[in-house]
TrEMBL record:
Signal peptide as annotated in the record: none
Response regulatory domain residues: 3-117
Amino-acid biosynthesis listed as a keyword: no
Name of the protein in question: Two-component system alkaline phosphatase synthesis response regulator PhoP
Organism whose genome encodes this protein: Longicatena caecimuris
DNA-binding feature ranges: 125-221
An example molecular function term from Gene Ontology annotations: phosphorelay response regulator activity
Domain OmpR/PhoB-type positions: 125-221
One biological process term in Gene Ontology: regulation of DNA-templated transcription
Length: 226
């Protein structure tokens, strides 16, 4: 079960969420203040953070930014009434893993938490490799020719996803659903932007992200021809 930090300043909403999560066996720490929540998250590890955007003293998006800078790799779910595509894109770019808009279904939120934890447990089982690239899941490190790559959280998640599905053509829609969230309905070009960044960082190696026209992308190992 997950250890969850629930950051929500509306007490009624916080009570509903915490009740369902505790009933499902998760351990919950609650906070209704942005600064307090940030201090808590920096002092102890959590599997999942559920974060309201609008909070006293420090906003939810600032919490995400500050924690990602400190390399906190907990699953972060933004829970907010802000449903504008610009806000959603910005939140994902700052490092959230999922985005839930209010009003919301507590059962759906619980299902998302469980799905993220199931995915996390599977990911930790072993290192991933293709060609000159090796990914250590426990340390969330990617090594290319034994040199550490500098990656944002979303770049790491996307690279891991490609390596886990190497030599398979992955559609943009599939990538969006699995990396940006279950109900992400923004512009698919966000995938293209992140693929471009990964390609740049993989240059000079035998690992390549190939475009499949009109479909998506495929990660493959390049082999020298005689």
């Amino acid at each position: 079960m997950a250890k969850v930090l629930l950051i929500e300043d509306e007490e009624n909403i916080r009570k509903i969420i915490s009740y369902d999560l505790r009933k499902a066996g998760h351990t919950i720490v609650e906070s209704g203040d942005g600064q307090e929540a940030l201090d808590i998250a920096l002092k102890q590890p959590f599997d999942v953070l559920i974060i309201d955007w609008m909070l006293p003293h420090v906003s939810g998006i600032e919490i995400v930014q500050k924690l990602r800078i400190q390399h906190v790799d907990s699953v972060m779910i933004m829970l907010t009434a802000r449903d504008d595509e610009t806000d959603i894109l910005y939140a994902f770019d700052q490092g959230v893993d999922d985005y839930v808009t209010k009003p919301f279904s507590p059962r759906e939120l619980l299902a998302r938490v469980n799905a993220h934890m199931k995915r996390q447990s599977k990911r930790m089982e072993k290192d991933l490799e293709i060609g000159e690239l090796r990914i250590n899941l426990k340390r969330r490190e990617a090594l290319l020719k034994d040199e550490l790559l500098t990656l944002t959280k979303k770049e790491f998640d996307l690279l891991e996803y490609f390596v886990s599905n190497k030599n398979i053509v992955l559609s943009r829609d599939a990538i969006l659903n699995d990396i940006w969230g279950f109900d992400y309905d923004g512009d698919t070009r966000i995938v293209d932007v992140h693929v471009f960044k990964l390609r740049t960082k993989l240059q000079g190696s035998n690992v390549h992200i190939k475009s499949s026209r009109g479909v998506g992308y495929l990660l493959e190992e390049l082999h020298e021809t005689a």
